[in-house]
Design brief:
Order of helices and strands: HHH
Number of helices: 3
Number of strands: 0
Strand content: under 5%
Helix content: 55-70%
């Protein structure tokens, strides 16, 4: 099936936030996110792995807070 140029690709709802959190972690570690993503050495993979764990933890926090607020509003 050919791509339709005017149709946006579907993406997970929090994907952009996850990317920003990973970038935040990498910048906090004194690294350039774009440069780290182009490297393929063990140190960059380890740093990206740690950034992913950080982002996952923060996303869990965001989702938990959203769930809590929905429960307070009686939306669950």
């Amino acid at each position: 099936m050919a791509d339709i140029p005017d149709t946006p690709h579907l993406e997970e709802p929090l994907a952009e936030l996850e990317r920003r959190l990973i970038d935040e972690y990498l910048r906090g570690a004194g690294q350039d996110p774009d440069l780290i993503r182009t490297r393929h050495d063990a140190a960059s993979r380890e740093l990206l792995s740690a950034a992913s764990v950080y982002a996952a933890a923060r996303l869990t926090e965001v989702e938990t807070r959203a769930h809590y607020l929905r429960s307070l509003r009686g939306e669950l």
